[in-house]
Amino acid sequence: MKLRNTTIQNLPDSVLVPTYDRSALTPGIVHIGVGNFHRAHQAWYLHRLMQEGKAQDWAIIGAGVRDYDSAQRSKLEAQDYLTTLIELDPSGTSAEVVGSMIDYVPIEDGNQPLIQQMTDPRIRIVSLTVTEGGYYLDPADKRFAPTHPDIAFDAQNPTTPKTAFGAIVAALKARRDAGSGPFTCMSCDNLPGNGRILKEVVIGLANLSDPDLARWIESNVSFPNSMVDCIVPATGPNELELVQQLGVDDMVPVTHENFRQWVIEDAFCAGRPAWEDVGATISDRVHDFEAMKLQLLNGGHQIVANPAEIVGISTISEAMEHRLIKRLFRKIALAEIAPHIETVPGCTPEQYVDLVDVRFSNPAIVDTVRRVAFDGSSRHTGALLPLIRLAASQNAPIDGLALSQALWARMCTGTRENGSSIEPNDPVWEQLMAVANEARQNPQAWLEQREFYGSLADDPNFSAKFALWLKQLHLEGVEATIVTYLNT
């Protein structure tokens, strides 16, 4: 059955469908970056509210700023912006059609349709999932990089911007000038202090062309921090076949695990949906929740994926079946990461390690090692390197954390232990591969990538441990090196 408004009531009984009148929904949110994660997470929470007869005036308008977003828009438009979510659990598979998105802004150079949509007074939240690497931050200090060519372009051309942030600034200017009030800007990306970072980028960009506007934004616009969590694999042939087997003809289905978490700071200048009614956590301790998730789950993903890629394992659940990789993850997580993590309501760091272990080991989730290892230059610098800096400053154990960096460097040589090639998997892959191969003879060359490591390159203890692990990886291989660490 082709997925459309006119067909959802004819889908198999096993597929849950919207019970609300989608034609009566009105927009309240523009979301930039309509990938799988957004549709399995934020859109699902809103959909569940709508299923309870709430939030009917908070429907989502999708948006993007890159040419490749046009293909996504076309697919969603052809099925009335409906998405089939497939929950993958070892005990069984279930499906639900989510209908909280009602439109998708056309993608055009200069982003005029997006700017116009955000100036609609009904829009009270503009949210984003543009990946950790999409915020124009200096890799070394994670601060706004005003010299980036895209940012420089937007500063010179504020009415026809290239970036999402330029479009946000232009829309806020129009709303200020019209007296229609601000909207909340909400990041939903895996970044520590994502609201603070989004605020710095938006105000920093505005200040380059209009300091008065920057001051107005700082005084009137809110930027709540949030923490998001759900494992959502990429959609490929297997997922497309699975949704067909369930009786739904959906061009862009999304699979996900049977776990979600969303922790949100209650800082919304123009109101918000009652997300807490469907399981979100409203808390002023977002930082503690995100530190637990970012360092144990996102950091753990890198600890698992890098050795798995080197030895030729395809999925994260298969990596967790490996006789050594699971033990590597648990030892680093429990001995070197958890001691730096605060307990949050209902969960200790040790309990969270056990939860992550179960989630990574779910064989129903075909989450590829390649997807998880993608963009390590952002993911390592966001999830693991801040923790390594903290541990090094406290003279705390860092043997396994140093090994995690050596495994990343070894992976970036571009060759697996069986001799096969690792395809480019990072925006700066050519640089990483060149330095990784130089580091075979000179391990310090890897750490001299100051845009990632900064002063860590000068820490003699960390540098020495990193060098020893990298040399052993090249001489003896991944398994022997992990055994050495496990026996320390």
UniProtKB/TrEMBL annotation:
Coiled coil: none annotated. Keywords: Oxidoreductase. GO terms for molecular function: oxidoreductase activity, acting on the CH-OH group of donors, NAD or NADP as acceptor. InterPro entries: 6-PGluconate_DH-like_C_sf, 6PGD_dom2, Mannitol_DH, Mannitol_DH/Oxidoreductase, Mannitol_DH_C, Mannitol_DH_N, NAD(P)-bd_dom_sf. Residues 28-276 form the Mannitol dehydrogenase N-terminal domain. It holds the Pfam family Mannitol_dh. This is Mannitol dehydrogenase family protein. It comes from the Bacteria. Gene3D superfamilies: N-(1-d-carboxylethyl)-l-norvaline Dehydrogenase, domain 2, NAD(P)-binding Rossmann-like Domain. Residues 286-473 form the Mannitol dehydrogenase C-terminal domain.
